[in-house]
Design goal:
Length: about 150
């Protein structure tokens, strides 16, 4: 497997991966042509040195997974860096082959390379299988997460 920074041409496949689950279908708009908002978001991510949008290719160069790492500098922990992993998706036809675990192992190494002191994630409570997977990788539910959705799309 090859991990590389995503390029603009990857955006449709990334959005397709994001939309290919029960919750993703509710919030993503995968169609041809893809809404321009995805390309605008890609440009913002691509310009930000604290963001890494990654795709994972198989041996023949097909994209089989994606993830986004955000590196958040802050004053606590003596000016530490917190890494946030989001939008991890593995292509449906290759799930169950250990790719998800390899994605997280890569992300953990990358967070260490960037000198992050913690790698954190959030997961929807409607995904109990994902919670079990993350726990097997060593993640612990140490905090209670909360969100305030700001309805900017209407």
């Amino acid at each position: 497997m090859k991990f590389r920074k995503a390029v603009k041409e990857d955006v449709p496949l990334i959005v397709q991966l994001l939309a290919n689950d029960k919750l993703g279908q509710l919030r993503e708009e995968y169609r041809d042509p893809l809404p321009d908002s995805y390309y605008q978001a890609f440009e913002r991510i691509n310009l930000d040195t604290n963001q890494e949008l990654i795709v994972v290719e198989d041996r023949v160069g097909e994209i089989i997974a994606t993830l986004q790492l955000s590196f958040i500098p802050y004053l606590t922990y003596r000016g530490g860096i917190r890494a946030q992993i989001e939008a991890v998706r593995v292509r449906e036809d290759v799930r169950g082959e250990g790719i998800g675990q390899q994605v997280f192992e890569w992300a953990i190494r990358r967070a260490r390379e960037r000198e992050a002191h913690v790698l954190q994630l959030t997961t929807d409570k409607q995904r109990p299988d994902a919670v079990r997977f993350y726990e097997k990788l060593g993640f612990e539910a140490t905090h209670e997460g909360m969100k305030l959705h700001l309805d900017l799309l209407s």
